[in-house]
Write a structure and sequence with these properties.
With about 70 residues, the protein is mainly alpha-helical. The protein has a domain at about 20-70. The protein has four helices and two strands, in the order E-H-H-H-E-H. It has helices spanning about 25-30, 30-35, 40-50, 55-70, and strands at about 20, 55. It has a two-stranded antiparallel ribbon. Helix 3 packs across helix 4 (about 55-70).
């Protein structure tokens, strides 16, 4: 029984994976990443509300923006 071995396509372009950072890394650099009006506490709260410990920069920006835009009841 011979198994068929497939080789990767030579023309296939592999997309680089986005870097993933921890909640603490985002919190330390909150004002640089999310704007000067966003502090570390907002970043940490946004991550905790979403149940996330690590994220890419775009995902973190999305979570933080949603969190700070929420209406306070």
């Amino acid at each position: 029984m011979s198994e068929k071995i497939t080789e990767p396509k030579k023309n296939a372009v592999r997309q680089p994976e986005e870097a993933v950072y921890t909640m603490e890394e985002f919190a330390v650099n909150a004002s640089k990443i999310f704007g000067k009006n966003v502090n570390a506490a907002c970043v940490m709260a946004a991550f905790k509300v979403n149940g996330v410990a690590k994220a890419t920069v775009p995902k973190a920006k999305e979570m933080v923006q949603k969190f700070i835009s929420k209406e306070v009841k």
